[in-house]
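Running this now, will post back.
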Amino acid sequence: MAANGGSDTVDIAASGFEELPADWQVENLIAAEQVVGHIEAAEAKGEPLDDGFVERTAALLHAHWVARHGDNAPVALRADFADLPSEEQDKDRVQVRLALQLRSETR
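Update: finished.
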């Protein structure tokens, strides 16, 4: 997906939120809202926020991303979460883990 003046690459790890292209900022906000919703729902049910939670939530984030982008998503990224290369899976896992970390720091 082209962003950042037509480029489809951004060094996310080395970029602050405000440095991301606007469409990537929107994607990050959507993912954050979804993760927070999943955390709150799990807490309400008394479910553990463990590695299984991270994996399930990462898979849901990916499925929502694919649903939003459909045919505009690169073919390789339209696969089910379990079929993605580990480096692609890790992008979703990192979002979940970061939200859990921030949650624990604010309690």
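The chain has one domain: 21-105. More later if anyone needs it.
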